[in-house]
Design goal:
Layout lengths: L1 H11 L8 E5 L4 H12 L3 E6 L12 E4 L5 H8 L9 E4 L7 H4 L3 H21 L4 E7 L29 H20 L2 E7 L2 E2 L12 H11 L5 E5 L5 E2 L2 E2 H13 L8 E3 L5 E2 H11 L5 E5 L13 H7 L7 H21 L1
Parallel strand pairs: 1-2, 1-4, 2-3, 4-5, 5-6, 6-11, 7-10, 8-13
Antiparallel strand pairs: 9-12
C-alpha cells in the first residue's frame, strides 16, 4: 500500500523548472536536513527521503518522502525522478548510525541496514541514469593500529589500507566505499566520497543514545549547576577533532562542484585535535560554569583520531577554517535551549 501511495504521489506532483535537481537520502537526519537547506539556497529542486522527518525543524525540501531505503521497491520509487529525466545529483547520507555508545553495541543491525541502503541506492541510480553521486563515508574506516597514540594519530587517506577498523560500522563504510568505486568503474558514474570526522552543530541529536560527544557533553553541562560533576567515558584523554556543520556542507559542495570526472576519497574534518576532557572543559567555559569530571567505564573507540587535510587542500584548494570553540558556542546555545524547554514541561 505504501509503495502504491508513493507512485501516485510522484505522478501527481507538478514538474519543476529548476536548473538542477538533487535527491538527498537521509534528509531527515542532522547533516541531511542541513544539506537540503544549502541546496535549496543554491537554487536546486530537492527531493528528500528518510524514514522520518527532521526532528527539530520543517524540511526545506520541495518534496519529502517517507520511505525505507532498505526496501528495493521503495528505493526505486524515490530515486526515479520524472519520466525520462534523472536527478542531476544524488547525496547518499542515509545510514544506521549514532555515537560511540550506539555503534559499539549494534554491529549486525548497522551492517545489515546500511549495507542494504547503499546497495539499493546505487543500483537504482544506475537503473535510472543518475550520473553523479555523493557518498558519506566516515573516519571510522581508518585502522585502529594507526590510532593508538592520542597525540599522533595517522588518518591520511592513503593510510586506510591494510584495513583494520575498530568497529563493524567502520568495516561497513569501507565496504561501501569499494562498492561505489566499483560502480564508477563499471558504469561510468561520477562518484564523490568523503570521510566525515565528527560533524556537530545545532539541530543534531543531543540525547537518547545516538548523540555524539559534543552534543552529549553540551547536554550534560547544561543540566548541572555550577560546581557539579559530569561523567566521561574512560580516562578522557582520548583525542578527536570535530567539524562544525557549515564547514561540512562547504566541503561537500566544493567536492560536488569540481568538474573533474574522478577525484580521490577525501577527509572532510578539522585538524584541531582535543582531548575529551578538554572538550568538556571548553563547553563548561562557554556555559560559564565550573565543573569536575567523573570518569566511568564506557566505550571509547580509538585512542586518537584527527583529520589529515593535506589531500583535500591539494585537491580542492580548500580546508575548513571555523574554530572548534566558535562552533561549540552556537551548538551549546541551541542544546541549552532544548534542555530548558524540556525541563519547563
Amino acid at each position: 500500500m505504501k509503495c502504491k501511495f508513493l507512485y501516485l504521489l510522484l505522478f501527481l506532483m507538478p514538474l519543476q523548472s529548476n536548473t538542477k535537481t538533487a535527491l538527498v537520502c537521509g534528509a531527515g537526519g542532522f547533516i541531511g536536513s542541513h544539506l537540503v537547506k544549502r541546496l535549496k539556497s543554491e537554487g536546486y529542486f530537492v527531493r528528500g527521503v528518510d524514514l522520518k522527518y527532521p526532528e527539530f525543524s520543517a524540511s526545506a525540501a520541495d518534496e519529502f518522502i517517507l520511505a525505507d531505503l532498505r526496501d528495493t521497491v521503495q528505493t526505486n520509487v524515490v530515486v526515479k525522478y520524472r519520466a525520462e529525466n534523472s536527478f542531476d545529483e544524488v547525496y547518499q547520507l542515509a545510514a544506521n548510525m549514532g555515537g560511540m555508545g550506539y555503534i559499539a553495541s549494534h554491529d549486525a543491525e548497522i551492517m545489515h541496514d546500511s549495507g542494504l541502503i547503499n546497495l539499493n541506492v546505487l543500483e537504482a541510480a544506475r537503473i535510472y541514469g543518475v550520473k553523479k553521486i555523493f557518498f558519506s563515508s566516515s573516519a571510522c574506516i581508518y585502522p585502529e593500529y594507526n590510532q593508538m597514540d592520542p597525540n599522533n594519530p595517522m588518518c591520511a587517506e592513503a593510510s586506510a589500507y591494510p584495513a583494520a577498523p575498530d568497529t563493524e560500522y567502520g568495516w561497513e563504510k569501507l565496504f561501501s566505499e569499494r562498492l561505489y568505486k566499483s560502480y564508477a568503474r563499471d558504469y561510468g558514474m561520477i562518484i564523490r566520497i568523503a570521510r566525515f570526522h565528527n560533524i556537530f552543530g545545532p539541530e543534531g541529536t543531543w540525547d537518547g543514545g545516538k548523540e555524539k560527544a559534543p552534543a552529549a557533553l553540551c547536554r550534560k553541562v547544561s543540566m548541572i549547576s555550577n560546581g557539579e560533576s559530569i561523567e566521561i567515558w574512560g580516562d578522557g584523554e582520548q583525542t578527536r577533532s570535530f567539524l562544525y556543520i557549515e564547514e561540512c556542507l562547504n566541503g561537500i559542495r566544493r567536492l560536488m562542484e569540481d568538474p573533474r570526472p574522478e577525484l580521490p576519497v577525501l577527509n572532510i574534518g578539522s585538524e584541531e585535535i582535543i582531548t575529551i576532557n578538554n572538550l568538556a572543559q571548553m563547553i563548561a567555559e562557554i556555559a560559564d560554569k565550573q565543573i569536575t569530571l567523573t570518569h566511568i567505564k564506557g566505550p571509547q573507540g580509538v585512542r586518537g583520531r584527527n583529520s589529515d587535510n593535506s589531500l583535500i587542500q591539494k585537491t580542492l584548494n580548500w580546508a575548513p577554517s571555523t574554530k572548534l570553540k566558535d562552533g561549540l558556542v552556537q551548538t551549546y546555545a541551541w542544546i541549552n535551549a532544548q534542555v530548558q524547554k524540556r525541563q519547563a514541561k
